[in-house]
Amino acid sequence: MQQPIYPEQYQSNTKAKTKAIPSNNQSNNQSKVKAKTKVQTKVQTKVQTKVQTKVQTKVQTKVQTKVQTKVQTKVQTKVQTKVQTKDG
């Protein structure tokens, strides 16, 4: 699988060496100039993508059935018999 390369993702090491030796123009003087230039470029781009998906589904079903049946039967029977006998 080939991914597209973006300029930020290049990782390059560039080294440049320069040597300069001038020619002998004056009498017999030998002068040697050695110049060494070292350029090191390191571009490192790290792209880290962390996708965290947490799906939590909690289904709580509470069925509470309370059947309360109160049957109250009150039978009150009051029989009052008053018998009054008056002799006279």
UniProtKB/TrEMBL annotation:
Residues 1-15 have a biased composition (Polar residues). Residues 1-38 are annotated as: Disordered. Residues 23-32 have a biased composition (Low complexity). This is Uncharacterized protein. It comes from Cohnella lupini.
